[in-house]
Design a protein that fits this description.
- By secondary structure, the protein is an alpha+beta fold.
- The chain is 42% helix and 31% strand.
- Strands 2-3-1-4 form a four-stranded antiparallel sheet, with helices on one face.
- A hairpin with a 6-residue loop joins strand 2 and strand 3.
- Helix 1 packs antiparallel against helix 2.
Length: 99
């Protein structure tokens, strides 16, 4: 499984109340679970910056990660970015292999 970081910015008109935000989250999670059953969610964080949320998940490949991103976009009139990620220890091993 590959690790991905997804940054999401929800459009201002996508949610009008805290309850609507919770409903949006529930629907998005249900859709990802139904359409992308191999995805393993590792964590979700609200952030105060250019994005509203950061989600970390594992997927078997980039195509599946793109499906997650597409589903999220359809539920929140959102902008998403997907970044591939590598654990630091694995990165160091990869660099050492260069010689």
């Amino acid at each position: 499984m590959q690790t991905f970081v997804m940054l999401t910015r929800v459009a201002p008109d996508a949610v009008k109340s805290p309850k609507a935000l919770e409903d949006l989250e529930r629907k998005a999670v249900e859709a990802v679970n139904a359409k992308c059953p191999k995805v393993k969610w590792k964590g979700s964080y609200a952030v105060m910056g250019p994005h509203d949320y950061i989600d970390i998940f594992e997927a078997p490949d980039v195509a599946t990660a793109a499906q997650v991103s597409t589903l999220i976009r359809t539920f929140g009139h959102a902008h998403t970015e997907i970044w591939g990620a590598m654990e630091w220890a694995r990165f160091k091993e990869s660099v050492r292999a260069l010689g």
